[in-house]
Amino acid sequence: MRSIIMLLVILFGLLTQAYTLPVQNSTGVNEGKVRFKRKYSDEILEHDEMTSMDQILKVNHKLRALRGISIRDGDIAVSFVRSAINCPGNACLWPKSVDGFVYVPYILSPLYDDMDRITIETGMQDISSGTCVKFVPRTHEANFLDIQPRYGCWSFLGQTGGSQTLSLQTPGCMWSGIAAHEFMHALGFVHEQSRSDRDHYVTIVWKNIMPDHIHNFRKQVTNNLNSPYDYNSVMHYGRYAFSEDGGPTIIPKPDPYIPIGQRDGPSALDLHKINVLYNCGR
């Protein structure tokens, strides 16, 4: 009997010691880079599986009508004067300086706290570090981005002239990948699955899309810059974007399990396309 009691005491001590050990952080440095293959189902996306666009749509879900503008394709602002999402003849590009850089002036709302500013500036740096586009605080420039914590995450397409609002709501839009996504819209890029050649690379499952949002899946007349289709683009919709019943709305082909979209920031091809569009010489 005494030996049984002693054994129980030892086991209890071991369990207590194990319970008090620190739990290893399973997310690690590359939390946002880990992607698991999911079967098509009606399960709700886990936070770690969400792409930048998934989060944008979550934040913008209850976005009300904005004065003078409408929101198309989930997060592209269009003025009532300019009803179409287009950039004919590259007329909406930011100008290139004589030194070879493209400077995009901006002002940042004082309503953002320090962490918000770091997140937004990280989104800028993720683009600037791999391209000739440089985001610079505005001094006297007539055309500039006015980055504000309005309701929702959205941007106009390309340079529209004058003060141009880019909304990054806090805290909902405070992912550097979301910031980079909206900055790429401001540079003139539409969503990747809106490319004119997208039907060669993805299948749009029309029956799974909420009827009121079918228009968000229309193709655009795009300059594809002789670049490959990029399933990993930060500009790509997630697999379940605008799903009515939890089923997939976009299926890659030929491999339906290819991950699409992400939240880490611009992909290598995203940066390449910026360099091609702006003739960065890289």
UniProtKB/TrEMBL annotation:
Residues given in the record as Zn(2+) binding sites: H181, H185, H191
UniProt-annotated catalytic positions: E182
Cofactor note: Binds 1 zinc ion per subunit.
The organism's place on the tree of life at top rank: Eukaryota
Protein name: Metalloendopeptidase
Residue stretches making up the Peptidase M12A domain: 83-281
E.C. designation(s): 3.4.24.-
Keyword Signal: yes
Names of required cofactors: Zn(2+)
GO biological process: proteolysis
UniProt xrefs under PROSITE patterns: ASTACIN (PS51864)
GO terms of molecular function: metalloendopeptidase activity; zinc ion binding
Signal peptide interval: 1-20
Species whose genome carries this gene: Amphilophus citrinellus (Midas cichlid)
Key words of the record: Disulfide bond, Hydrolase, Metal-binding, Metalloprotease, Protease, Signal, Zinc
